[in-house]
Amino acid sequence: MAKTGKERSAKTAAKRIEYDEKELRHRLRLGTRQKLEELMAWNGIEEIGEAVQNLILNAHALGPTLSHQAIECPRHKITVSENVARMIHSAGQRKASRLDAEEA
Questions:
Q1: Any idea of the CA torsion for 67, 69, 75, 80, to the nearest 10 degrees?
Q2: Is 92 among the domain residues?
């Protein structure tokens, strides 16, 4: 006899508890999602969960030193030109002079 939907759901829930499964939800912006889809296409992976799991396992296999390169967050480097630095400095000087004049 076939199992009912409730029986199948109960069995699945019991397995999730037994294996200590946790559901992860994460929102991605378009650029990140496109990169994930590209990785999946390169490797013939159709399920997002499988791709994420493989990425985690492979990054972990790299060890603590090399995994840092795979998992670090890319940050933008901000460089201030001399002209901008001069403008900021002179604006600060004007503000300091104004504050000194107000205090006097």
A1: 140
A2: no
Q: What is the pTM assigned to this prediction? A: 0.57
Whose tokens are 């991605």? That residue is 28
* Residues in the chain, total: 104
Number of domains in the chain: 1
| Token pair of 94 as six digits | 């004007």
Task: Supply angle C-alpha 14, 17, 19, rounded to 5.
Answer: 110
Range of the domain at 46: 5-73
Position 30 in a domain: yes
Whether residue 35 lies inside any domain: the answer is yes
pLDDT for 41-73, tens place per residue? Answer: 999 999 999 999 999 999 999 999 899 988 888
